[in-house]
């Protein structure tokens, strides 16, 4: 009788022991699942953090809130033209300025509010230059000054037109505020280009453009 009781309790002990092991296995599986989920979440957060940092480096959004002023010396021919009014003579008919501007146009706004004047000139030394006077636009990442064969279209319809037309990349823009002078190669033909475009390479959009005439 005692042996049966012992066996009975022994058997029950085994059942209890097995139940405990099952609970331990379930808890271990649950902990493993939680750990894997935490690793997955941490991995996703890491990826998004890297992408966010890369986006900041590439697009530099803070530039839109920082002005960069430029004050290049404006060639005499452009400065004289800017101060003349229809009532004023060109000082003296006998005086010949050093090859006055060949082409000129006023900037209009595209993706960002833009104003100022673009002028193509040959200076006193016979050097070709693009002069931007009283320029005011937004700062931005990777903005370039283009000579373009694109038409200048007001409003949003004109934001992306220049990318579909031939252009000559003069240089990265020196700044978004002030007077700036850019040297041009001797073989640039002023008559080939119809506009000057401030083009943002990062966003493939025109900040502003001036039609030359």
Automatic annotation (TrEMBL):
Sequence ranges of Polar residues compositional bias: 88-107
KW Cytoplasm (keyword) present: no
Originating organism: Corynebacterium diphtheriae bv. gravis
Residue ranges, annotated region (Disordered): 82-107
Domain DM13, first and last residues per copy: 100-213
Transmembrane segments: 40-59
Keywords: Membrane, Transmembrane, Transmembrane helix
UniProt-recorded name of the protein: Electron transporter
Pfam family, one: DM13
Organism phylogeny: Bacteria, Bacillati, Actinomycetota, Actinomycetes, Mycobacteriales
């Amino acid at each position: 009788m005692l042996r049966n009781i012992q066996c009975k309790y022994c058997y029950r002990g085994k059942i209890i022991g097995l139940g405990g092991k099952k609970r331990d296995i379930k808890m271990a599986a649950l902990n493993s699942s939680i750990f894997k989920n935490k690793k997955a979440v941490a991995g996703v957060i890491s990826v998004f953090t890297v992408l966010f940092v890369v986006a900041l480096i590439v697009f530099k959004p803070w530039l839109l809130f920082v002005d960069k002023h430029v004050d290049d010396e404006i060639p005499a021919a452009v400065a004289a033209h800017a101060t003349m009014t229809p009532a004023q003579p060109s000082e003296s008919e006998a005086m010949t300025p050093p090859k006055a501007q060949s082409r000129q146009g006023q900037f209009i706004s595209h993706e960002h509010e833009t104003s100022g004047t673009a002028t193509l000139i040959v200076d006193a030394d016979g050097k070709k230059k693009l002069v931007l006077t009283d320029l005011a636009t937004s700062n931005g990442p990777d903005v370039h000054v283009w000579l373009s064969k694109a038409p200048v279209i007001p409003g949003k319809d004109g934001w992306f037109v220049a990318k579909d037309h031939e252009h000559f990349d003069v240089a990265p823009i020196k700044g978004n505020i002030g007077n700036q002078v850019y040297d041009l190669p001797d073989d640039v033909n002023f008559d080939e280009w119809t506009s000057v475009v401030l083009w943002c390479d990062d966003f493939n959009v025109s900040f502003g453009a001036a039609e030359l005439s």
